[in-house]
Amino acid sequence: MADSGVPPVRVLILNQHGDNRGDEAALRAMLGGIEARATRPVQFTVMHQFRGGKVFLQVPHDLEWISLVPTLVEAARLALFSLFLALGLRLRWVLGAWGRRVLEAYERADVAISAPGGPYFGDLYASHELVHWLYIWLAARHRLPMMLYAPSVGPFRMRARNPIRRWLFGKFRTVALREPFSVEYLRALMHRPNAGTPRAGSAAAPILVTDSAVQRPLTPYTRAEYFTADRAALAERTLVAVSVLDWHYPGHPDPAAAKAQYEQAVVDALVHVHRTRPAHLIFAPQLYGAYHTDVPFLRRLIARLPADVSWELVDPDADSDHQQRIFGMADLYFASRYHPQIFAINAGVPGVCLYYQHKQLGFLTQCGLERYAFPIDDLDAAKLCAALDDVLARRAELSAHIAAALPALRAASARSSELAVQLFPR
Questions:
Q1: For a disulfide at 94, which of 29, 81, 194, 406, Cβ 3.0-4.6 Å?
Q2: CA distance from start to end of the chain
Q3: pTM listed for this prediction
Q4: Burial class, 59, CB count within 10 angstroms (exposed 0-12 / middle 13-18 / buried 19+)
Q5: Which phi and psi (to 5°) does residue 376 adopt?
């Protein structure tokens, strides 16, 4: 929005995950969606977890970046300040330079939004869930209108934590969740018999939307523009966009054996595609930077493919827009990461998903494509190969099915931005 002389709405984005192209795509879509619907200029402050020395995200918005990766001393000082604040004492002198910057962001904000991602709130990220809640609690202490903007949440089987979870979820004015399983997890957590009808959009009555990135489709690359003259022959092949994560099977009784079975199933499925048709595999790393990168894992998988398999590895410095346009160009996707399936489906491209969390199955359920989702804990290479064959045989039909579903999915995704703007001061 052009500068109109009207004071901007100051939006504080909390818990933005970093070093991941999927979270980058969700953030870009959220910023653009909110800004497009606002009737006043918007100034964003993004509290993020980028670990690398360089923030790769470039967005055409008025942004301030605050790292959520402080030194141990700075983190301890913020924790001490928060303890005193809980006791009613606002001792600013306890904070270091980073903590003061964080506090000032809360003090000048008009609205606080917890970014899409997760499920950070729930058992799956229990090791750092309380850190995410701290930033929510600080927003509540500053009496900021708050929204959960299309994350996943749950499950909530750690009963000792559930009372504080209920209390903190209740601080949100609006709760929009991106898939149906998270909605059910939160409803079960917040259920209170004889408590009356919950307000729509509250934690007890969450609104089902879909992933933030769905509201921002991008035009896929044409094969002619993607493949250079010396690689023109590849444009005639079946293009398979691949994005798989290095899953370590936490909590599994034999994680090494489960991981070996998973990796072998991935390799067998890709070799099957290669053996049944002329194919070209495009591997897209989602993690990037010095601290988080899945390039070494992808290279280990590639090294196990036969020498005659045609493949390429997407530049890890290429942004999420580039990746989304590649997935939209492909004939099918094969992914155990979450956002690559969204990149593909946003362009009507079907595929096969190996899901490690409910967020993936939830999205495909919204699309009516859950039969192409396979649990990562129990993989059968033969079933994966059969599913890939089925997708390719029925590609036109499945693409038409996705095209019919996309208008409703885009409207649901954009609903999160509409709800965010409703929190703005008038």
A1: 81
A2: 17
A3: 0.93
A4: middle
A5: -70, -20
Cite the residue boundaries of each domain of the chain with CATH code 3.40.50.2000: 223-405
What does the pLDDT average to over 71-87? 95
Which residues on adjacent β-strands are paired with residue 63? 44
196 token code pair: 């009356």
What six digits make up the tokens of 37?
Answer: 């619907």
CATH 3.90.226.10, applies to 9-215+410-422? no
Report the distance separating Cα 251 and Cα 119, nearest Å.
17
The architecture of the domain spanning 223-405 is 3-Layer(aba) Sandwich (3.40)
DSSP-based three-state secondary structure for 13: strand
Q: Which residue has the tokens 């004071």?
A: 7
Secondary structure (3-state) at 67:
strand
Residue 375 backbone phi and psi in degrees, to 5: -70, 130
* Closest to 57 in 3D by CA, of 17, 24, 26: 24
Measure the CA–CA gap between 7 and 10, rounded to whole angstroms: 9
Coil, strand, or helix at residue 47? strand
Is 51 a residue whose pLDDT tops 80?
A: no
Report the candidate in 381, 378, 357, 360 with the shortest Cα–Cα distance to residue 369.
360
The most distant pair of C-alpha atoms in the chain lies apart, rounded to whole Å, by: 70
Mean pLDDT on 10-35: 93
User: 């899953």: which residue's tokens?
Assistant: 247
pLDDT tens per residue, range 230-288 = 999 999 999 999 999 999 999 899 999 999 999 999 999 999 999 999 999 999 999 98
On the question of pLDDT at 197 being above 90, the answer is no
Edge-to-edge strands, sheet with 279-283: 310-313, 279-283, 238-243, 332-335, 351-355, 373-375
Neighbours of 248 (CB within 10 A): 11
Where does the chain hold its CATH 3.40.50.11930 domain(s)?
9-215+410-422
Q: How long a stretch of residues is the chain?
A: 426
